Amino acid sequence: MRNNTSTQQPIWEYTLKISILLILVVLIFQIFPRSNSLFTYRIVEGQVWEHEDINAPFDFPIYKASDQLRSEQQEVLKQFAPYYNVDYTVAQQQLERVLEAAQAQSLPQETQNYLAQQVEAIYKQGILSLADMEELQTEGFTRITIVNQRHVASTYPLAYCYTPKSAYDILFASAPIAAQQHIKSLDLNSYLLPNLTLDKQTSNNMREALLSEVAPTQGMVMAGEPVISKGEVVSPDQARKLRSLQLALDQNGAYQGSAWVAVLGNFTLILSFVVLLILYLYVFRPKLFHDLNTLLFFSILVSTIVAIACAVVNYTDLSIYIVPFVWVPVIIRVFFDSRTALYLHLITILICSLVAPAPFEFLLLQITAGMVAVGSLRDMAQRSQLVQTAGWILFSYCLGYTAFTLAVSADFGMLRWEMYIYFIANALLVVFAYGLIYIFEKSFHLLSSITLVELTNINSELMVSFAEKAPGTFQHSLQVSNLAMEAAKAVGANTLLVRTGALYHDIGKMASPHFFTENQQDGINPLSQMDCITAAQTVIAHVEEGVKMAQRMRLPEVVQQFIRRHHGTTRTAYFYNTYRNEHPGEPVDESLFRYPGPKPNSKETAVLMMADAIEARSRSLATFTEETISAMVSEMIDSQMADGQFDDTPLTFQDLRAIKQTFTRKLVSMNHHRIAYPELKK
Fold it and tell me: The pTM is what?
């Protein structure tokens, strides 16, 4: 019965909503592992190969394992000795400086002769800088190759060469005792400079020449030859073949271009899945599509699960089945409907199947688990329901995996016990979704069944105060909640939401409870002392007072809507009719007698409006028979419908018929007559 003339939303709002979902596409694509290789499998030795069978697409060499290649290279490098050039001018210059210093101090001729012989002998062997010596020792070299002035290379032990310090020590230690004192006075450390310099280019060339002798490959795999089959444990030999195939694909020009085509394909699939989500929301859940907060919530939840799945697959050795994909249907179902929960779950696992090993098995198990999660949860009013759901999910995983493996392999030996461990861990993570539900509820201002159950606690501080200050109104609210729940159940509305809204719809009367007849104990009605307009405005004010009170108590916005809409834009009929009778023929400003609204916009708010009016009207019936009650119910609902109060709701005539029957049946049972108890005769 929704009005077809709906207000068109501005283009920028649609653009913003579409942009949020397109950002989701880009975000997911960025999360996905980026590789220019067609070989996207993760290779882990000792683990079961969960992907499809792989056969060699062409001939390719088997590359040695990195440890083996490194070991062989290190063995070859033991023959390598870095190349150093001799600078003969250094020896000549430093010898002249030493002799000049000895002559300047008038050292004995014997000492000068000794110094000349020793310095010449030391430079003939060669002096390395201390830094070069330490670097050679650190890198494990025990020999060096010295190239003389005739370009003849000779290899010597590293100990054959001196450093400035060792040269001074040997020169001093070998000197006669009488000459040692003279040598000390010369400060020879400043004269014994290195004459061997590293020839980097020659050293690098010779080093690469030695390494080139080590072959990086060991054997060949011929085209069509099996590399590995699904279900096999990856052996070291198979791991080498798989890594060799990956390298061969990367080096093969014919396949390099195809890798980018694969990336484009992934992006197109992700975009297609998100477009399907947009279409679903736009066509079947327009209210959710038009809510930016909800779209943002969906985007964050889906991208979070995708990010976790990509991280597990690409950066850990864990199975993808440890990822709690059923968080999506569980969390969505708590806040929204089952269909939306299952649809978002399907979109999420379709995206994740692009990185999952054995995608068919993955989709089969995840779809089953999602259906079980949605079917077993329904309205989560207790924490124990989440535990039960986790148990059913665990059962579905174990049964599905066992059945699928046996159906494909016909071999009990193909069942892997560690998979059941992952399923148990997954079920435990489902239980932890309770904390996420609370976080999302507060962050995105959503409303869960758990919160509704908490709000319906009549022992809460607000409800106790309500019962004390306005006992008649409180009892009226309880009766309305019972009526509304039955009617909501009959038309498939949210019964828990209706019950909550009914309990709080009249809390505004707590501000001035004595103005309302249900709270008047002494029969005195203050409204009778007022003119009709003032009295009507006093009664109407309880709606705004209720909204203010709900805002102070931080009640959810959804509950506040019940307070705003439970009278819609109806008239206060008693005061309006009285005014018209007292002022016949005079024009009447109806806005003074009408509630401010807005009108009900859902099945739940419409049902509450009907239940509220009917429960109040039922108290004025002189006789309680099925006929009188049915007539009263039909009259009240028909008048509200004629007044256009249900134009913005999705109620159908069939729904209205079911609501009328439910109200009639419920009121008859609530007002049935009891038999009179006989008096005890004396």
Answer: 0.65
